[in-house]
Design brief:
Length: 48
């Protein structure tokens, strides 16, 4: 388990299902934020 940077809560590693396929990522059990590979890449690009 890992901790969420914003709220400090526990994150759970889960499988999510999109329109085309499923993917794995982390979901915060308190605020519901989801972090996956594509989400991380998009957030990193926005910071540049």
């Amino acid at each position: 388990m890992k901790r969420r940077d914003r709220c400090g809560s526990t994150m759970s590693y889960e499988k999510f299902y999109g329109q085309a396929e499923g993917y794995f990522g982390w979901r915060c059990i308190v605020c519901g934020d989801i972090i996956g590979k594509v989400i991380r890449e998009n957030r990193f690009r926005k910071k540049r």
